[in-house]
Amino acid sequence: MAGAKGIRVIGSIETGQEILQRVDADGVFVGMTGNWISIEPLIATGAVDVFAMDMNCSPPSLEEYVPKYPTTFVSVSPLVNIRGVDKHIDYSPENVRSQAEQIVNLAIENYRRRKGAGLKIPTRVQSAIVGFSIESILSLLGGSLNPLLEAIKSGQLKGVVGLVSCTSIGNGPHDVPTITVAKELIRRDILVLSMGCGNAALQVGGLCAPEASDLAGPGLGSLCKALGIPPVLSFGTCTDTGRLSILVSEVAKALKVDVPDLPVAVTAPQYMEQKATIDAIFALAFGVLTHVSPTPPITGGARLMKLLTEDLKEITGGSLLLENDMVKAADAIESHILAKRRALGID
User: Fold this and answer.
1) Among 147, 212, 230, 295, whose CB has the most other CB atoms within 10 angstroms?
2) pLDDT in tens, 234-270
3) Is the pLDDT of residue 62 over 80?
């Protein structure tokens, strides 16, 4: 026996987000820490016995932490090869039970070594409502999209924005641009559906809790309080954009219009990963205004910029918005949504 009271599993980054969407928090799984920039302060607490890394956003800088902190680092994917990390238990579905036991045993041995060492664990814990999906949203609405459509038609909701983002410090402090643009949007009665590392930012920032309805505009705020939901709906990871597009398509079908005619938009306020680039290209092809920050390295291509910001409107209906000031970005998104409402005759 190592002397510990039990085992706790804590999610991190997108893998943690996937677990959070599907597994109830209990005495073993106790939630998640945040996105990839929060990994280093997590390790610095001294309270992590095993940090198991899959292929999602494991920073190479962890090499510097291996000799400094009492954590055992394990790669569980052949794609994760970080210098200084020599333990590899590559995930195999056929052997997953024994592999999990190996990881638990590594944690127990690590706890024996670090037991009694000083810990620096933050005390703040933020609650969040997670796990929203097409099915759960329909259930909340009584099995039909009609209440959502009526809220949009009446102006109680101006529109909906999908926030699909990474996190970065390329355009501001950790998560600040993401939280800022989300606050600006909900303040303007625009519902936000969040995915990716940006989703974790909004969960940690308290915007996925019911109390955040007090930060929303009067229309969205009253709707949230009536349904008992937050103004930002946690919709999963950056790979869940396909599910979101199905929901948007169903709304378009119910209103008997095309997707580009809807009062919707997409924002990636702190994009970084190649997956975010793919999501942005998909959103543009889907026919949606797509806000991206920090400014990607495309502004030197005049013909490409003209295609993405002007010509694409006549091809797919989508267009690219580059804006690093989050208040101005929210202004532009709101203007776009209001224009779509006027074109539909519901303004």
Assistant:
1) 230
2) 998 888 888 889 999 999 999 999 999 999 999 999 9
3) yes
Position 83 scores a pLDDT of 85
Fold of 9-114: Rossmann fold (3.40.50)
Which residue blocks in 231-273 are alpha helix, DSSP H?
Answer: 241-255
Q: Which H/E stretch holds residue 162?
A: strand 159-165
- When pLDDT is cut at 50, 70 and 90, the band that residue 210 belongs to is very high
CATH class held by domain 134-344: alpha beta
Q: Residue 284: is it exposed, middle or buried by C-beta count within 10 angstroms (0-12/13-18/19+)?
A: buried
**pTM summary value:** 0.93
* β-sheet bridge partners, residue 50: 72
Convert the pLDDT of each residue in 280-321 to its tens digit. 999 999 999 999 999 999 999 999 999 999 999 999 999 999
Q: Are 164 and 17 in contact (CB under 8 A)?
A: no
Identify any residues that bridge with 264 across adjacent strands, giving them in sequence order. 160
Torsional class of 191: left (φ above 0), alpha (ψ -120 to 50), beta (otherwise)? beta
Nearest alpha-carbon partner for 201 in 102, 270, 151:
270
**Do you find a cis peptide bond into 294, omega within 30 degrees of 0?**
yes
Give strand pairing partners of 165. 196
Residue with tokens 């680039």: 277
One-letter amino acid identity for 286?
Answer: F
3-class secondary-structure state, position 215: helix
Query: Please, which residues have CB within 8 angstroms of residue 282's CB and are 6 or more apart in sequence?
Result: 241, 245
What tokens does 135 get?
């099915």
> Same CATH fold, 134-344 and 9-114?
yes
Q: Which of 173, 232, 171 is nearest to 206 (CA)?
A: 232
Q: Are 266 and 293 within 8 A, CB to CB?
A: no
Q: How far apart are CA 197 and CA 16, in angstroms?
A: 10
50-53 sheet: strands from edge to edge: 50-53, 72-75, 87-88
CB 249 within 8 A of CB 259: yes
Domain ranges of the chain: 9-114, 134-344
Which phi and psi (to 5°) does residue 233 adopt? -95, 120
